[in-house]
Amino acid sequence: MILDDFQLDDRVAVVTGSSRGLGQAIAVALAEAGADVVGAARTDQTETQQLVQKTGRQFLPVKVDLTNRAHHELIIAETLAEFGHVDVLVNNAGITHRSKSVDFPMDRWDAVLEINLTSVFHLSQLAARQMMKRDAGGKIIILASMASFQGGLHIPAYVASKGGVAALTRALAVEWGHHHINVNAIAPGYFRTDMTASLQIDPVRGPELSGRIPAGRWGEPTDLAGAAVFLASPASDYCHGTILVVDGGWLAR
Q: Is residue 251 situated within a structural domain?
């Protein structure tokens, strides 16, 4: 039955940035599909843990700072110690900084690229090594963005990082596909998260953005659940290097 291909029973999924927003919604969705979840975040994950455990699945919180590359190894090590293997990695964590490009501070440039791109590559590398060692394949999902396709006002580092994420997704998919590791990305449109809070309440930009979305509304974190489960499950076994857009029609306009 086709619905069986969307089940994640006995899978172990690592989700970064899982304490709230898109990461929390993805973690809960993967658990609802049958996966045990390792949540990696720098803030408290009590709420996510409770939501995952309500599904009957296990949740392992790992407190990390993704600017510390040793913490990337800690995530994988703790996953292996608790569950013995990693089947799914969701690189969700991301940050941004808003400033005119001519004045953009280089320390913020470095921070955005470190979390949004470098940590994504390093964690993917570490997870892929374990997947290859086990020879059971795996799924790596990277959170891209509309900024993977378009420019943006006053967010040069974010645009650069998400453009890099799109290219990295394709590069890793080409290299690791024959190991039965699927590397794909999800590109959310405008979603109601902490990162977009200032845009949501902006009296000019908020209505401008809302008016351009064909769906007539901003996305809610749960709107990403189906895409995440699909790309984490056997249903997507022949998808390699795909950037799945979930944007309410933004790019179609």
A: no
pLDDT tens by residue, 57-89:
999 999 999 999 999 999 999 999 999 999 999
Reply yes or no on whether 238 is catalytic: no
Q: Which DSSP helix (H) or strand (E) runs through 69?
A: helix 69-83
Count the domains in the chain.
Answer: 1
- Domain of 31? 2-246
The verdict on residue 252 lying in a domain is no
Phi-psi region of 104 (alpha: psi -120 to 50; beta: other; left: phi over 0): beta
Instruction: Exactly one of 59, 158, 190, 191 is catalytic; name it.
Output: 158
d(CA 212, CA 202): 15
- CATH code, domain with 188: 3.40.50.720
Higher pLDDT, 134 or 152: 134
Nearest to 18 by CA among 245, 247, 228: 228
Instruction: Report yes or no on 43 lying in a domain.
Output: yes
- In sequence order, what are the beta bridge partners of 132? none
